[in-house]
Amino acid sequence: MNVLTRVAIFGISAWTSLSLSMAVCAQDNNSPPPVLVQVDEAREQAISQLTWVPGTVLSQIDANLASEVNGRIRWMAEVGDIVQAGDPLVEVDDTRLSITLNQNKSNIARWQSQVRLFEKRLTRFKNLQANHNTSLGELEAVEAELENAQQELAQARLDLQLTEYQLSQSRVTAPFTALVVERLQSPGEYTAIGQTLLRVVNPHNVEVQVRAPLSVLPYIQSGMAVNVHGKQHQVEEAIRAIVPVGNDNSRMMELRIAVKPNDFPIGSAVRVAIPSSDTHQGVTIPRDALVLRKSGTYIYQLNENNEAQQIKVRTGVGLGERIEVFGDIDPTLFVVVRGAERLREGQKVRFEETASTLTAQN
After folding, report:
1. pLDDT above 60 for 105
2. How far apart are CA 113 and CA 57, in angstroms?
3. Which among 182, 203, 180 has a CA at the least distance from the CA of 262?
4. Pick from 296, 300, 334: which is nearest to 315 by CA?
5. Which among 104, 98, 96, 52 is positioned nearest to 71, based on CA atoms?
């Protein structure tokens, strides 16, 4: 082979390699860029069927306070006031009780004088009896008078204690940290013993009262965490108490779930997710990851190369914003929750991981 032939062959080979490289580059340039998506995690967790039941937020202590004395109301806390335990909520006029207190002290002084008088008389009659200058009957009469005076003195002292107690009760104090919810009487009105003055609640001890069907009893226990949903937000709190007693009509029992004071306003309505089946292990994904097609329900998971892999799934138990799925799912890989509708099998995607949700990057 001469030199010209070898040069021609080399030129043809170089041209062929250059053409193939240009074709590959053209193909790469024509391939679509990675699609911007939002992803979240598939999660392996304990799953049970949930029953949503209504609940009401209430204070553990909701009390109607009354006075233990009669009298005209001189002062009363305002609706909305928060009064610390031991501080006054209501003051009743104590003029009559102050007068009674002075009368009790006067009675005590009078009977103390009587006791001293009869003690001296008894001593004198004992001396007379010893010298046989008086009869035994007269001595016994003096002893009876002394004993009667002593009993009257004791009763006068008890009357004084009662009046002092009533004076202390003319100021109705808060038995706990109390939020005044309602005034049932007003300053200037006359109140009687046992008549309700105020309705108060403890704003720091708050819980949810739930009516749940007796059928969920085998699947719940005290201390179990449940989801409590309000209009604004949701929390996860523990069941504080279970009252496993229903009635003939509703077959419902009562649950109490302790919540934090600032989670929900007292009196607001909430919904509580109560387990109603045995717990099993399964895989859950966000509901938004489901792609509904005529041929079935699919999700897209990302492989190690950030390529979308289409997986056909069946759905199971719903868990709030997540749902159980069955299929060839790897719980260690991300699923696409935004942008899945426009994906194709094997298509490249791009995203950014964040602390809570996973959002797309530019």
Report:
1. yes
2. 63
3. 203
4. 296
5. 96
